[in-house]
Amino acid sequence: MVARFPARVAWDRPFSVVLAAVASATLSGAVGRAVSVEVHVSNGLPGFTIVGLPDAAVREARDRVRADVLSSGLSWPLRRVTVNLAPSGMRKGGAGLDLPIAVGLLVATGEVDAASTQALAFCGELGLNGSLRHVPGMIALADATAPLGLVVPLCDVREAALVRGGDVHGAATLGDLARVLRGQAPWPEPPPPSGAPSTPHEPDLADVRGQAVGRRALEVAAAGRHHLLMIGPPGSGKTMLAGRLAGLLPPLTPDEALTVTRIHSAAGCSLPDGALFHRPPFRAPHHQASIVSLVGGGSWSLRPGEVSLATNGVLFLDELGEFPVGALEALRQPLEEGVIRVSRAGGTVTFPAAFHLVAAMNPCPCGEGVYEGACTCSAVARARYRRRISAPLLDRFDLVVPLSRPDPDELLSGVPGEPSTAVAVRVAAARARAAARPAPERGPDLAPDAEALLGSKLRSGVLSARGLHKVSQVGRTVADLAGEDTVSFAHVAEALSLRAGRAAVVP
Amino acid sequence: MTLPEEAYAVALASMPSIGPATLRELLADDAPSAAWTRTVGASGSVRHVARIWERHTELGISVLMAGHPSWPARLVDDPGAPAIVFCLGDPTALDRVATVALVGTRAPTRYGIGVAAQLGADLAAAGVSVVSGLALGIDGAAHEGACGAGAPPIGVVAGGLDDPYPRRHARLWERVAEHGVVVSESPAGVRTEKWRFPVRNRLLAALSDVVVVVESRHHGGSRHTVDAAMALGIAVGAVPGSIRSATSEGTNALLADGAFPVCCAGDILVALSLAGASVPAPSTPKARTQRPEPGTGEDRRVYDALSPDPTSLDELARLTGLDLPSLCGALERLARAGQAVDTGGWWQRL
C-alpha cells in the first residue's frame, strides 16, 4: 500500500521557483531527440496549456498529469500553468512526455527540490491512479538523454539499461519518485527477470516429413544468406518450411541483437523477457499489407516497417503473387542496400533493413500448375499471374525451388525428419568456413568440370551472366556445407537444380 | 479508277450488319458490285469501297472468292463454305499437298506440347501441311514444330489478319505466313469476337483432309472442330492419353467414339491415304538408336529411377536414397550424355 501524502493546495505558498526545466526525449522514427520540458507557473486564472508542437497524445497529457498528481496526493497549483517543449519547432509525439511534465510541475510547486532533478532526464507515461507506464522506443530515448541519469517506469529499466548501464533508475508511481527525489527513500530495484526461457519456442524441422529438396534449399539459404522463393501447390509445405528457417540461423551477435532490439523497441513491439533479442526475428506480414507497413513510414511519426523489423532475421512473404505489385517493387532498394530511407515532407529517416527474404507462391492462380493436366487456369490467367513477379525482383532470389506435395508414405511413416539443431550445426560450420576464407578476387574457386558445366549452360542460354554469378555463389555455399575448398561438378549441379523453379515463373 | 469485283466483296464483308451466312446469300446470285449496289443503294460510295480495298492490298492480304479458279479445291463442293477468304502469305499453299489439322487444348501438359510439336515436325517433313488455329497451347506447339520443316503450314484464325491474336503468337503468326499461309474469314479491322471461333473451327476442318486432336478436355473447344469434321465426313484421329489426366478426357472419349488412334505421324499418313489424299508412302518408323547404357554406380542408380514421365527431384531423391549434390551431379552427367532431360525441375529419361 502506497503511503498517501496529505492533499495540499499550494496556492498560499510563496513561489521561489516559477520556472522549472526538466530534460526528456521524444521518438522520431527509430531515433530519440532530446527535449527540454519547461514548466512555467504564474498568477492568473487556473489553466494548463502545452505548447511546442505537441501531437494529440502529448496534448492529452494535461488530463493525465493532473489526475496522476492528485491521485498521488501531491499538490496541484491553482494558477496558470504553461508547458513548453523545446526545441519548439520539432514535432513531439507519444505519452512519454507525461512524466517530465509532472516532474516539472512538482519542482514548480516546490514538492521536490530543483537541484534533485538537475542531473536527471525523465521519460514515462502516467496513469490516472498515480502509476508510471511503459513507453515504446526506450532504447532510442535512453541514447538521446545521455549523459544525464535517466528515470523511467520500473518496467522499462532493463530495456533502457541495455545502452546506458547503471545510471538508469525506475519508479513504479509518481509518489515513489517524489519520495526518492526528496531523499526520503532509495531508488527501487527493478523486478528480476521472470526466469522463463529466454529463447521462445521455434518450430523444428523434425516436423517436416519428406521434402528433401525443400529442406536442402532451406539449409543452403541459411548457410549462405541466399534469398529463397518456393513455388508449389497448396499443401506442399511451403509455409511450414519457411517458418523453420529462423531456427537454422545462428544466434545474433551482440551488435546485431542491439540493432534488432532497438528497432523493435522503436516500433513499440513487445521485447523478450531479458529485453534483448538473441534469436533472429521472423516476420511474416500478410499479403494485404500496405506499402507503408512493409517499408515504414506514417504521416509524421515515422514508424519502422516490416522490412526493418526483420533486419538481421527473416522476412517471409507468403502468397507472393497476391502482394500488391507496388509493395513488392518497394522491396528492391532495401534488398540491394540493406537500409531503407523513408522520406516525408517533415524529414527523412533511415531504418536498417538487412533482411533475409523468403517467399512462397503458387505456380498459378489455381495452385495445381506443377502437376500435369491438373491446372484449370487459362493460359492468359497464368501469364497474368506470372507478370506480378517482375524480372528484377525474381533476379534477387538466388534459390527458386519447385516443391511438390510430399509422398504419402513418407507423410504417414511417422519417421521424424532431421531436427533443426543438427542442420543448424552444419549451417554454423559453413558460415564459419565462408567467414574465414579471404574474399576471392575472381568469383569462387571452381573445379574444371564444374566450370565446363556452367559454360555449357551459359552458351545454351539456360543461364544469363547474372544467373551464372548467382549459381556459382550458391555452388560456393554448397561446397562450404560439404566442407570442401573447391566447388565441384556436383555442387554446381545442385545449385542449378535449386533454381529450376524459375521455369515455372519465367514466361 | 475501276475496282476489281473482290473489292466490293471485301466491302460487303466489312459491314458490321453482314455475317458469313448473309454474305454467302448475297454473293450466291449476283456479282459483288451488283450485290453492293443492291444492299447499300445508289448512294453507296465507291470511295469507301476503294479505301477498304486499299487497306487490304497495303497489308498484303490477298482475297479468294468462291467460284473463282483460285478458290481452294476443298471448299468447292462445300455448301457451308464461306463466300470469301482472306489470306496472308501464299494462297496456293492451301491446295498444294495433303493437309492435316492438329488441334487441342490451350492449356496442355508437357506431354501434349511435346507430341504436338513432334507430330507437326514429322508431318511437315513427310510433305503434309499442318493446319492449325494459331491458338495458345497445342495449336501453337504444332506450328512451332511444322514451321520450316518441309510442307507449308496453314494457320486458320478467327479475327482480321491485321491484328495477331493471341498477341503472344504474333511472331509465330509471321513465320507461318512466311513459310505458308494464314487464312481467315474476317476482313482486316475485325476484332476477334467470341462467335468467330466456331466459324473459324469449321473452316479449319473444311480445309483439312484429316483432323487430329492431340489433347483436349472433356468440353474443350476442339469439340467444335471435331463436330464440323464429322459433319463434313472428314476422318478424325486422337492421341491417347493417361486416363488420370484431365487434359486427355476429351481425346480418350473421342477414341471410345471411334476416332482412329494416333501414336505417330505414320498413323496419320495411313489415315490420309485411306481418305484418298495423295501422300508419300508412310515410312517405317526409324528404329530407335540404341543409346549406350549408363555406367555403374550412382549414374546407373539414377538412370534406373528415371522414367519417360517427368519425375520431381524429391521423388528421385526418395527412390535413389542419394543426397542432393550426388543426385544432381548424376542427373547433369546423364543430361550431358543425352540420356535425361530437365523440364523446369522435373526430370525424365530420354
What attributes characterize this protein structure?
heterodimer, A: 507 residues, alpha/beta, Ribosomal Protein S5, domain 2, Rossmann fold, four-stranded mixed beta sheet, 36% helix, disordered N terminus, B: 350 residues, three-stranded antiparallel beta sheet, 12 strands, 14% strand, elongated
Describe the structure in brief.
The complex is a heterodimer of chains A (507) and B (350). By secondary structure, chain A is of the alpha/beta class.
Write the layout of secondary structure elements.
The complex is a heterodimer of chains A (507) and B (350).
Chain A: E1 19-28, E2 31-42, E3 47-51, H1 56-59, H2 61-71, E4 80-86, H3 98-108, E5 120-122, E6 125-126, E7 132-133, H4 138-145, E8 149-153, H5 157-164, E9 168-171, H6 174-181, H7 212-224, E10 228-231, H8 238-242, H9 254-266, E11 282-283, H10 291-295, H11 306-309, E12 314-317, H12 325-329, H13 332-337, E13 339-344, E14 347-352, E15 356-361, H14 379-387, H15 391-395, E16 399-402, H16 408-412, H17 420-436, H18 448-459, H19 465-482, H20 489-497, H21 502-505
Parallel strand pairs in A: 3-4, 5-8, 8-9, 10-15, 10-16, 11-12, 12-15
Antiparallel strand pairs in A: 1-2, 2-4, 6-7, 13-14
Helix pairs in contact in A: 2-3, 4-5, 7-17, 17-19, 18-20, 19-20
Chain B: H1 5-14, H2 20-29, H3 32-40, H4 46-58, E1 61-65, H5 73-76, E2 84-89, H6 93-96, E3 99-103, H7 110-125, E4 129-132, H8 138-146, E5 154-157, H9 170-179, E6 181-184, H10 196-206, E7 210-213, H11 222-231, E8 235-238, H12 249-256, E9 260-261, H13 265-274, H14 297-305, E10 311-312, H15 313-320, H16 324-336, E11 340-343, E12 346-349
Parallel strand pairs in B: 3-4, 3-7, 4-5, 5-6, 7-8, 8-9
Antiparallel strand pairs in B: 1-2, 2-6, 10-12, 11-12
Helix pairs in contact in B: 1-3, 1-4, 7-8, 10-11, 14-16
